[in-house]
Design goal:
Number of domains: 1
Order of helices and strands: HHHHHHH
Number of helices: 7
Helix content: 55-70%
Distance between the termini: 15 Å
Largest sheet: none
Structural class: mainly alpha
Strand content: under 5%
Number of strands: 0
Length: 204
């Protein structure tokens, strides 16, 4: 499978094709050029964020979770729970990208609630920021439904670009084997990960 840097290039190139396509599609729906430009940028940004920070390879200890720095540990439960390259939970086209986004939001919410609970034990009352945030997101979804849809679509396309690239490489290797061409290159370390090892490479 392609390495992390190759996946980054694929994410950028695919996003660069999607952005103008989104722009032209929005213009055809009688949306102003200014709004179409902003919405296209929103989809492009979500696409890059999904492909580079919420990559399908977060299901293993890889170069991707290293990009989260000190917050990389929040993906450990996800790694333990999700089988590597699962078509339904990690490397699928639609559900996995949204699952990673939902997982991240859930972890942040739980961390805030846990922090507020500990402060409560000390007699410190924390405002209900989580409820305010939920209310704001609900209002945002109602008032800017198109932009929210484009964010979710960008997350889906960003993850899909990674998964499709992996499928093409794997499928191509199988085709070559059937044609009698032996592929000697080993892709098992494409993401700087070794089975049974928890060493964290800092390579990107």
């Amino acid at each position: 499978m392609p390495g992390a840097r190759t996946h980054d290039v694929i994410t950028i190139i695919s996003g660069s094709f999607l952005a103008p396509l989104t722009y032209l599609t929005l213009l055809s729906q009688d949306i102003s050029p200014e709004t179409a430009t902003l919405d296209s940028a929103i989809l492009f940004g979500a696409h890059l964020l999904s492909g580079m920070m919420f990559s399908p390879d977060l299901d293993i200890d890889s170069a991707i979770d290293n990009r989260w720095g000190v917050l990389g540990w929040i993906w450990r439960p996800y790694m333990w729970a999700v089988p590597h390259r699962s078509r339904w939970l990690s490397h699928g086209l639609i559900i996995p990208p949204l699952l990673r986004l939902g997982y991240f939001a859930s972890v942040i919410t739980l961390l805030f609630l846990g922090f507020a609970w500990m402060l409560g034990l000390l007699g410190i009352v924390v405002p209900n920021y989580h409820e305010q945030a939920a209310s704001y997101l609900l209002q945002l979804t109602r008032q800017h439904s198109r932009e929210v849809f484009l964010i979710l679509l960008g997350f889906i396309t960003g993850g899909a670009a990674h998964s499709i690239a992996d499928w093409l490489v794997t499928g191509g290797k199988h085709v070559l084997h059937r044609l009698g061409v032996r592929v000697t290159r080993d892709y098992t370390g494409h993401d700087q990960w070794r089975r049974g090892s928890h060493s964290r490479s800092r390579r990107f």
